[in-house]
Every structure is written in C-alpha cells, then in structure tokens.
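Example 3.2
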Amino acid sequence: MSSSSSYNPPCAACKFLKRRCIPSCVFAPYFPPEDPQKFMNVHKIFGASNVTKLINDVLPHQRQDVVSSLAYEAAARVRDPVYGCVGVISSLQQQVDRLQKDLDAANAELIQHVCNGLPVLTSTQPVTPAGPYHYVNQTWNRQNGSNSHGNAGGNSSGGGGWWWW
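Structure, written as tokens:
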C-alpha cells in the first residue's frame, strides 16, 4: 500500500532528544539527520532550550550563522574544554606573530641585497618603504610628520627615529 506522504527522517536534534520531529521543528533546517554529532556537541555545551531561544531570538536570515557559530564553539569546547575558541585564536595569533617576524627578516635581507652590501637594519629599525615617509616613534607616517601619539612635525616623545628631509 502506497502512502501519499513521503517519509522524512527526524532531524538530528529530535532524534537525539527522542521526540517526534514536526514540520515546523526549529532545529530541522540546521541539524540534518546525517550529522548527529553537530547537535550532540551544541546540546552538551549550550543545552537544547538555550539553542531554541537563541535561534528564535534572531532574524530568520541570521539563524544559519548563529547555528554555525554555536556548532564551531561547541566543537572547540569539546576538543579543549578550558579554552575552546580562545585557544584556537591564541594559537593563530602566535602563528601570525611568528610569520610577521619571518617576513621582517626576509625584508631586511632583501634590502641588504638591494643596497649591495650596506649594513642590515636591526630588528628595532623597520625597513624603509619607498616614498616620502618618516619613521617616528616606531611608526611610519606620510610627509605630514605626525606620529601615532599625535605629535606633529617632530619627535617630541623621545622615541628616536629616522627623518627624511
């Protein structure tokens, strides 16, 4: 005997919570039955009722982003219960810092080769960019001579630097 309605498996949330998945289920669009771990992580960290409130409190076009953020944070918390996403961010920031140092060293070496053997600038002296820039208090500025501390036309904060006249 054939039925006119097709079978839709319950979403991962309803299956995990052992309830019937209704057509207006708030979880169904965001937690497909093929990815039960996604809901299990979100439920473990945030709780189903809190997730329902969060989803219902945002505009419909923002809900997918909210669920993606919750799922990412939940997965990070499951992997690292203490730091979660902050641990990932910290690790990436350290990588950026390390790469910036490598880039500075490569730029210094490049300038040395371009200048055909002139001494390499130290790590506290940045590589001089092309153009009418001034180095004041560890900051590059255009010809107006202002620095990052708001001092105009000079080096009044005592921070030493290069001037191109």
